[in-house]
Amino acid sequence: MSDVRTCPTCGAKAKYKVKEGLETFTAVQDEEAFKKIGQMKKAMEKFKAKAEALEKELNQLKSQQ
Q1: How far is it, in rounded angstroms, from Cα 26 to Cα 40?
Q2: What 8-state DSSP symbol labels residue 20?
Q3: Rounded distance, CA 24 to CA 36, Å?
C-alpha cells in the first residue's frame, strides 16, 4: 500500500518508499489521484480487518471440532 507524504524537496504530495535503506519520493500528479489513493487505502484497511476477523472465526471453528 502506498504511503503518501509531502516531499521534503518540492513540498508536493508523493508516494514514499524505503528500499535497501534508500528513501524515494515519487510525485503524485494531481489532487484527484491523491484523493483516490486515500480512498483506496481506507477501503483496503476495512477489507483487511474483515479478513482478519473471518480468519479468527475460522480458527475458532476448527479448534471446536
Answers
A1: 18
A2: T
A3: 21
Q: Residues 14-58: pLDDT tens digits? A: 888 888 889 888 887 777 777 888 899 999 999 999 999 999 999
Whether the CB-CB separation of 30 and 21 falls below 8 Å is answered with no
- Grid coordinates in use for 5? 507524504
Grid cell in block for residue 4? 503518501
Distance CA 5, CA 13 (A): 6
Would you state the cell numbers that stand for residue 33, as one nine-digit string?
489521484
In which residue are the cell numbers 484527484 written?
32
Q: How many residues can be counted in the chain?
A: 65
Residue tagged 477501503 (cell numbers): 43
Q: Could you tell me the pTM of the whole model?
A: 0.49
